[in-house]
Design goal:
four-stranded mixed β-sheet, mainly alpha, 65% helix, abc type-2 transporter like fold, 370 residues, 4% strand
Length: 370
């Protein structure tokens, strides 16, 4: 093994990447616009949900309920007739349609327990799940205040003070932006290394390299360090310029320590990209393999849902995946300000998994060359 050969081959890979505008565009998009979109354009809470009200009572209570829905959670309510309700729901105009029956206020004051009807368009999943609870809470509160003739809430014997640690404002953008950086690191590292190897095979340059005094180890190592360096630089820019700068997300821990952990993650995922490229005969086959591997890595690693909510068998299986340990150390460092003394088990696990993947991929690469 010659370090100068590995360096020169890596520089060749970087030059080849610069001549591929689509991959460059993918890198820029994944670490800029994709991060911003994940933090701002996919709300987890209710936002401007369209609601219509069929007021058949025309009473003070029904008017009070109708005026209780306002921005930013709901769009201004539209007063419609009963005949329009089904038509508007079928056309997708309204997410919620509230029907207040005749004599609702009179029956409520008489203690007859009248019933309200709420129609929900469940195809709009996020708004349907959270909005139903919002509407129920609003209606219950308005009816209780109307019955008491007072808007002040009753004094409770216990005062519960809720304090959210690490994200006091419960800002969804803080979580979405950082997790999307983690997912982009995994995706781009696999895509770039696999594409680099398949491009060598399709252009016939892999045979040119083999007739030179170059070993398979040097070829593989050059692709790993060059593509890993590109993703590492892009992720460092994304964390500092996009996450901290543009989105204003506070980073509690050391960005340098996170990048060291990202380097170990890149060592493992770039090796995985080489292995997938040796299994695929062409770029379309590589894309299919990528979907089969990348989706479980991202969904089951804890970046989208907590690992504790998954079956125990899945949790144990995913301990063999590098993403599981990388997500854990990234959340600990960036959110909770953890130091190396807290995340060294994840660093050790990533080093072991990366070494195994590298050796396994190298053996597979040598076999494919024969």
């Amino acid at each position: 093994m010659r370090l100068s050969t590995i360096r020169q081959l890596g520089v060749k890979e970087l030059r080849g990447l610069l001549r591929d505008p689509m991959l460059l565009l993918l890198i820029v998009y994944a670490f800029t616009l994709s991060i911003y979109t994940a933090a701002t354009a996919m709300p987890e809470t209710l936002n401007n949900a369209p609601i219509a009200i069929v007021d058949e009572d025309r009473s003070a209570l029904s008017a009070r309920i109708g005026s209780a829905f306002y921005k930013p959670y709901f769009a201004p309510p539209q007063l419609i007739t009963p005949d329009q309700m089904d038509q508007r729901m079928d056309a997708g105009v309204d997410t919620f349609a509230l029907d207040i029956p005749p004599d609702f206020q009179r029956d409520m004051l008489a203690g007859r327990s009248p019933t309200l009807q709420l129609n929900v368009d469940a195809t709009r999943m996020t708004q349907a799940f959270s909005g139903s609870g919002y509407i129920q809470s609003i209606i219950t509160s308005e009816i209780a205040e109307f019955a008491r003739h007072d808007r002040e809430s009753a004094t409770q014997p216990v005062n519960l003070v809720l304090r959210a640690q690490f994200n006091p404002q419960l800002n969804k953008g803080w979580f979405g932006s950082v997790m999307n950086v983690i997912n982009s690191i995994t995706m781009l590292s696999i895509v770039l290394t696999g594409t680099a190897l398949i491009r060598e095979r399709e252009h016939g340059t892999i045979e040119h390299l083999l007739v030179m005094p170059i070993t398979p180890f040097e070829i593989m190592a050059s692709k790993i360090w060059s593509m890993g360096l590109v993703v590492l630089v892009a992720s460092a820019f994304s964390i500092t310029a996009v996450v901290q700068g543009l989105l204003g997300v506070p980073i509690e821990g050391s960005v340098l320590l996170f990048l060291v952990g990202a380097s170990l993650q890149l060592f493992a995922t770039t090796s995985l990209g080489i292995f997938l490229a040796t299994m695929a005969g062409s770029m379309p086959q590589f894309g299919l393999l990528l979907m089969l591997v990348l989706l479980p890595l991202q969904i089951l690693s804890g970046s989208m849902t907590p690992r504790e909510s998954m079956p125990v068998l899945v949790q144990n299986i995913m301990l063999a995946a590098p993403n599981t340990h990388f997500v854990a150390l990234a959340q600990a460092i960036l959110y909770r300000g953890a130091g190396f003394a807290n995340v060294w088990p994840q660093f050790l696990a990533l080093s072991a998994i990366g070494t195994v993947l590298f050796l396994f991929s190298l053996a597979r690469f040598r076999q494919s060359l024969k």
